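User: I'm designing a mutation panel for Major facilitator superfamily (MFS) profile domain-containing protein and want to avoid disrupting the core. Could you give me a predicted structure to guide residue selection? Please restate the sequence first so the numbering is unambiguous.

Assistant: Good idea. Sequence first, for numbering, then the predicted structure tokens:
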Amino acid sequence: MENTDTVFETDAQLDSFRNRRNKARDGDAMDASHHDVQDADENTPLIAGAVDKNNDDWPEGAELARLPWYRRPHIFWVLAPFFLTTMAFGGVLPPKSTLMLDLTCRDYLQEQAILDPTFMVSPITYGEGVNAQCQIDGVKEEIQRRVAYLSLAITLVSGILSALVIPTLGALSDRYGRRPLLVISSIGTICNEIVFIFAAVYPETFNVNWFLVGAALDGVFGSLTVTVAIAHAYATDCTPPARRSVSFAWFHAALFTGLALGPIAAGYISVWSGQIVTIFYTLLAVHIFFCIWIALIVPESLSKKRQLLAREQHTFRKEGSGKFAINLPTLKILWPTGPGTSSALRWNLVLLAAVDTIAFGVAMGTLNIIVIYTNFMFKWRTLEMSQFMSVVNGARVFSLIVILPLVTRLFRSKRAKKTNSGSDLFDLSIVRTAMFFDTLGFLLYTLARSEQALYASGVVASVGGLGSPTLQAALTKHTPNDRIGELLGASGLLHSLAKVVAPIVFSTIYAQTVKTFPQAVFVCLTATFGFAFIISWFIRPHVHWDDLMAEQNSEEDPSITVS
């Protein structure tokens, strides 16, 4: 009887929520003249607060406005710890690559000593990545090949497991809140850091296969991909639709600022302490702090009522699918059918998702190759690698927080539409420009033969960072607000799959060509981003999902299910 009452109560709450949303839409039609003045657009400062009590298009705003400030969700509650986490993620890449180079060098020299008893093995200095016996022509290329395959295996294990759990963890966050899942996503990262600490403390006896165990633990809890996806979902929960693209830009800026500052901070920690293990201890402390902050300080963005509604809806869908139905990861949100949709909408979503996957997933999935390549070409150590990554990611952050807002202010009309009406020509121009600079940057990587040229190539490619937040915002402009979480989950799944497939393809290319033409991998990356640039011209402006039409059809004909 109690369960029946709960169901009735949930249905009533859902009806109430729909009524408020419909009234908000009616109010929007009646007060359109006022919206030109009152509504926010991309130029509206985010610092003014995510909760707008007068935002009729966002009924959830009134509910959040009633909360005291310390319980009111806001993106800045999550933004600071998110920045520290991305800083740790960026800072750990160079020392991890250095450690893998050293351990692979150790294994190779031990193999040679077994094959040739007269072979003398010189002591290895762990934490440098540059050992004399492994820098000899012929040996150096073999070490690079082995490290490329090791990095590939690590990325493959983590990426596959992450791709499998992302939809489940994302759905759980809809039903049980964002905070628990943000904490869970960090558990695997903490375990992975502990594995690398053991590798740094006991390098003479550490088996590199343990890196795969750490990668598996990282992947099974979702890794950084889940953290990014749920952080975006948190922003979606507590930000009005008109300001949502600004929130995404803040998170992307935090991501790449962390990737920029993390490596150079890690490099100086290594120089200051003289031990690479100090970096791993520091980064472990950062991840533990993130878990504590999220668990104890950050307000939950999903109210208990909304969590209850999501659980009940999940139960109804599960019962409708059959008792033994298996919920597999789905991308059907990218190919919607039914009232309010069109073929142009479906193709726009597919093309935007494809370009977004290349722009973010492929780029993130090839970071290790660039780090290993710099060691091969210029014998860079941890500090030099860290400085390079900091400059490149710093240029990307500059593009996000200076160039993009400036261009937006100069060329986008302040009277642009506030409702979801699809991407406009300005959005598409930013995307196409970003893909052009990505293509040009990797072409310059192919041609670079000096350190200065490599830095210039990285800076040019970093301008392509304008594309990722614009693509994410463009995707959300094509779908109703109540489907954005599902859309971001599908996008996160594609990102995770790209971070699996891209390393397989490009690491294999690098490993097979490093002895003859090590720049071949950059030729392939140039072609990949060139393809993204071409298909971006087939995306049509002002195409969107008419959710009001879909809902009206659903109400008139109960047999129609909007899914």
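For picking mutation sites, this is relevant: Residues 183 and 292 are 8 Å apart (CA to CA). The mean pLDDT is 78.
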